């Protein structure tokens, strides 16, 4: 008799152990199979972890597996190993980890494959026609099939009552009717993409040489390549080498950059050997792409975060493009970092982890430093020039304080207006960029650039219009906005707030005969409008594109020669310890949009704080200088990556309930940290009202835990997740790790 150990697909920590079942005679079961099993009084689903000829459980008590789900194993054996890694690292159940790996539709059999009937001639045409002689409908069908099989639905378009005619022909033995699987392929456009690999530049070849050395043994790399240095061609070459060895590859791209353009790029090169996985696919499309990968029909996967689990057999590389993006962190349990999962998956399959960026995250770049422990080490690969001798765009900072002093109260500086005019007369395109998130805004002196910051926290205070107060989102201290600038006594101190709409209007006023397009959350709400706007701009249907950070990411517009950053200070002054990093990244990325083809690019950055190191370094495109300044600041202020900030937020319409829950949970947390000897990793545990005490009619309390990243952050976060899972009447509990904006 054979036995299977099964992880049951139920949400309960107490059931997080393998249950043994009998494998019925005649049913072939392998590890990774999804099965239906009796559990208590019902039938549920589970994942087979192991199979064996013997068991130490009393056989008399065991029940047999009811059925197998699908023909093939749903989870590859190596992914089973990855799941147990996740279970340990993120303190989730095996079922949680496995569930994260497969499309939701696979479970509970919600999506079925789509098949259709197809008719095919099995006799020579003349003989078939002879058999059909007295029925014109049948004769028509025979001639329709004479140059190949057709679907019944197609035949119905030619002949009315096609299905009964086909049935009759099948009965006479003239044709055969079979089921054909239909693949729901997401649409791809190869438009404007060459199907040929260009000859690699010297920089690209050097990088490939390093990667080639690791092709069989595996390795971890960070590719720091300036914008336009041709990182994608490096990825493509690496994938080609792997395909030759019979291996596959996964390319992760931030969801927002996963445009038809990016997908088309890979499709043009790899054809149907490539598959795409992202959240905008319909559930049917997603399921079918997953199946194509699982069957080995597609071996190059490009997708968003969850594609790190794509069932590619023997993957030789996982490439993570724009690795600095926050998009690689899962926001729900299990809270995994796709970069860590990819690293482990590549360790298991002796493959290459390749992180790529023009602006690597501080934490990844730190891992290329000499003193890093070998298991965390990333090998640095560098491409510091653009391809084909193209110049980096010329950047200029415009001091908006001087503009005001010279009597210009508008949102565009003289320099930007002039550059726009030159660009338009030259028949080129321009992009105007502003980053304005939500309603948070800050108070800024337009005469001297002074910004109101919290005295205790050194982060920008946020202006709350409804209460007319400045609030520190880190420590909740408040103050009235000043009437005159404390530094220069100017009365031009006010809250900052030029949005995309305003910029669009101003641009239209300035260039009434030019076409201006706007791209932000408001204009891209519909499913494909994001792609539509970009396509229209690429086709030259507009001269100026105004947008938020959405226009900054990985887009390649050959005709854009001017990029204007209308207000660099909007990101710089966000109440967030990452604001300098974000600003540096955004400016480098948007600047990278200019001059990507043959005409050189120009970048104009408007700011009230031209002396800030993030802007100075971005201006000179000096990533290393930025890195060193930023790391010193993080170390000094005990900010990530040296520490991790985790926050539990308690909201309730009943303030007393929320407050009580927060303080009880804080005590419980301290106790469990002490019991599990985790306290040495924890810097502080603070509870109290959240910086914004009331939001949308709810009272808010929080527990803020700061911990050393080098310790055991997962163990500490695991305890906090236990709190998050608690069911407390009337109280909603949410956990956030390194929250971007604490309010
Ligand atoms: P990055 O991602 O590093 O910003 P891309 O991969 O988008 O850069 O490449 C920038 C441009 O250079 C693209 O238009 C690409 O087709 C082109 N390119 C890249 N490598 C080469 C090469 N070896 N020869 C010619 N053109 C190249
Ligand atoms: Zn001032
Ligand atoms: Zn403060």
Spell out which ligands are present.
adenosine-5'-diphosphate, zinc ion
Q: State the helix count.
A: 22
CATH architecture designation of the largest domain: 3-Layer(aba) Sandwich
Number of strands: 30
Return the domain count: 4
Q: In the CATH hierarchy, what is the class of the largest domain?
A: Alpha Beta
Helix content: 25-40%
Low-confidence stretches: none
State the distance separating the first and last CA atoms: 60 Å
- CATH topology of the largest domain, by name, is Rossmann fold
User: What best-fitting shape do the alpha-carbon axes yield?
Assistant: globular
Strand order of the largest sheet: 11-12-10-13-14-9-15
The biggest sheet, with number of strands, parallel, antiparallel or mixed sense and barrel status, is: 7 strands, parallel
Based on helices, strands and strand pairing, what is the structural class?
A: alpha/beta
